[in-house]
Design goal:
The protein is an alpha+beta fold. It contains four helices and 17 strands. Bound molecules: 2-oxoglutaric acid (AKG).
Length: 233
């Protein structure tokens, strides 16, 4: 696994969302001797650790999770009609960590040994004792997640959210919340998330910014995203 090195404070970390989103590959991190990117902007605090898992580790974890997680099809009620969420999910948490997500009370599964080990490593890496995990399975590019902030009252606002990506490369979009006072001065931007990348969203990001995963209709292969969270005890 990569070790955190000298964080890079990019002078212009935010790229406007234009026809071509910000792509990490444009920066040759290895040639620059960098292992972590830090994005700071008013109300936004992100750390991106490319290839936190190497290719082999990420492949093995992807296969394990595709086969062994109790994936569920959740539904959401919108304007009186029930719709399936465009992804499968699984919620894992310590006992007593109840959490509503997208207006849904989650059925909680226990930690598997592999996910417990991963939680320990990611908690150490982030300096945050995560007690819950939401897994999302995007079966193909038609699966997606709308723009939202992980700012529910059950979540500790002072804790980071750590997001590990596995499988097909997808775009994560960020935009300032409209009532945040940042909308006028901050532009939307996007990050490309690759197999094995770890994105840490530190406070106060969820208070001021929304994020979402748009559809990519040409993608046929799956992506799994794991978001480690800290629910109030
Ligand atoms: O799939 C992703 O990268 C985003 C997941 C997400 O936003 C969430 O679980 O709240």
């Amino acid at each position: 696994m990569l070790q955190a090195s000298q964080p890079l404070e990019l002078p212009q970390p935010i790229e406007p969302l234009g026809p071509k989103p910000f792509e990490l590959e444009q920066l040759d991190l290895e040639r620059l001797g960098l292992e972590q990117l830090v994005f700071e902007h008013p109300g936004l605090n992100l750390r991106l650790q490319p290839r936190w898992l190497d290719h082999e580790q990420a492949d093995a974890l992807l296969q394990e999770l595709l086969s062994n997680v109790a994936w569920k099809q959740e539904h959401i009620r919108l304007f009186g009609r029930v719709h399936p969420l465009p992804r499968l999910t699984c919620w894992i948490a310590d006992p007593g960590c109840a959490y509503r997500y997208s207006g849904l009370q989650q059925v909680v599964e226990p930690w598997t040994p592999a996910l417990q080990a991963l939680r320990t490593e990611i908690s150490e890496f982030c300096g945050c004792a995560f007690n819950s995990l939401l897994l999302n399975l995007y079966r193909h590019g038609r699966d997606a997640m709308g723009c939202h902030a992980d700012d529910e009252p059950e979540l500790e606002a002072s804790a980071a959210i750590a997001s590990l990506s596995l499988g097909s490369r997808r775009t994560l979009r960020f935009k300032p919340k409209s009532g945040s006072g940042l909308a006028a001065q901050s532009q939307s931007f996007a990050l490309e998330l690759n197999h094995g990348d770890l994105l840490v969203m530190d406070p106060p990001t969820q208070q001021h910014w929304l994020h979402g995963l748009p559809r990519r209709t040409r993608i046929e292969s799956p992506r799994i995203n794991l978001t480690f969270r800290r629910v109030r005890g």
